[in-house]
Specification:
Elements (H helix, E strand, L loop, with lengths): L6 E7 L5 H13 L3 E5 L6 E5 L2 H5 L9 E6 L18 E3 L2 E3 L3 E7 L6 H13 L4 E3 L17 H14 L3 E4 L6 H7 L2 E4 L7 H9 L4 E4 L6 H13 L5 E5 L17 H8 L4 E3 L1 H5 L2 H13 L4 E7 L13 E2 L3 H14 L3 E2 L1
Helix pairs in contact: 3-4, 6-7, 10-11
Bound molecules: phosphoenolpyruvate and manganese (II) ion.
Amino acid sequence: MATVHAPELLIIMSGNATPDEVEHVVARLEEAGAQAHVTPGKQATVIGAIGDRELISSLPLEGYAGVEQVLPILKPYKLVSREISPDPTVIDVRGRRIGDGYFGFIAGPCTVENREQTLVTARAVAAVGCTMLRGGAFKPRTSPYTFQGLGQEGLEILAEAREETGLPLVTELMDPREVEPVVETADVIQIGARNMQNFSLLAEVGKARKPVLLKRGPSASIEELLMAAEYVVREGNAQVILCERGIKTFETATRFTLDIGAIPVLKQETHLPVIVDPSHAAGRRDLVLPLARAAVAAGADGIIVEVHPEPEHALCDAAQQIPVADFPHFADEIRALSSLMGKVVG
Ligand code: PEP
Ligand code: MN
């Protein structure tokens, strides 16, 4: 079986290294049969050397002009790590940004149920300054006897909502057989919690030229989430947004337990933006705002929340969706808090 090499060494160039010196290091690595992953940074350029560790280590890298330091990458995740890209990644979706100082405010229904419900919600979230519209056309449901989403028709309704409001769309891809229609319509491809370790799906979206919103599995560790992101980035798609959405614990008062600690840990470990879904974590609408506040205060780069014109009639996640009528207040709170944290709603 073929061995797949990971980036093994970090070559940190000095702050005043010239482009020719960077090129020289890359050329020597390639001559030796290794690959180079070059990340220009604000302070210095970092080169990740991918290949056989022994072979790379045999090169006199430290002696090359412009090289400041050569370090092993000790973490199992490589391309998503802060070590390889010290500067935060900013993801631009049709001019809306997430990451660094930009806060992504994503809202919309859990599920596209019909045209009216989706358009009413889309207008409401656009009116309060959200940056993207969420909504599922293909739904992962715990019971096979509940509404599974409108599929292709749902995608068409979402496209109409984007046309009218100008908001980019976040929608879930569940099955490698649905890559084509979902990737064509979505502006951000959501990989749901249940599919976080569906490695063939991760490889598919790794080949797509659109950003991916990767949700943490309810039983996945932070390291497993980062390794899942590594699968996507390794295929060439570096535009990954990570999402903490609550994990399974012994606690039953909330639907899942929102792991607030994951936010600062992820922000230290990776350069990728980290957002929070307080709706699925809470499972109850009265807890969505306090959890969203906690997420912003802990340094999240955005939130994704569920909103519905009449939650009591929602076909999915009725208990946690915020009524459209209450959403302006919710949005005011989030905007105020994100500006307190020095962020701009992107
Ligand atoms: C959703 O966002 O509608 C959803 C199903 O979320 P999760 O995958 O986090 O359960
Ligand atoms: Mn939902």
